[in-house]
Amino acid sequence: MTRAVCPGSFDPVTLGHLDIIGRAARLFDEVVVAVGVNASKSRLFSPEERLEMLRETCAHLPGVRVEGFTGLVTDFCAEQDAAAIVKGLRAATDFDYELPMAQMNAALTGVETVFLATSTGRSFVSSSLVKEVAALGGDVSTFVPGLVLDRLTARLAERAAARD
Ligand code: PNS
User: Nearest-CA neighbor of 87 among 152, 1, 9?
Assistant: First the structure.
């Protein structure tokens, strides 16, 4: 059994994430999508909301399960008996950010990081840009699953109402 961990903050999950998760699921027997719940960045969605959106949007993918994690991703990989971490690479900036983390993780426990090149049509899609564009009234319907779009629209409306 080959098992991989696909970690991220997923605030919220995008079609770019789902592309990587789906392709990882074809390479490994099992993929554990690991939602980092202790990151310091302020989030639009709570850990529970992010987990729920991922569970719903990954439900059709065989061999994929979604879990939350705190602490080191290497400890989570060891707990899950996963030999690999899967990350998507959109551009050189991603590589610059990811390479030292991959090397640190390998130095800590020997876990390998496998990079998948993002599909061309998704290379500019990120959770942060999706949130920014949506907050300014832009159409992000082609970048996130429908249920995420609904929740994003609702959350941004709540935030806007709270400011008024
Ligand atoms: O969506 P992101 O911001 O790329 O996700 C980052 C995440 C959660 C994958 C990363 O911050 C992480 O691995 N956090 C766990 C803490 C950890 O192991 N830090 C050391 C990395 S070398």
Answer: 9
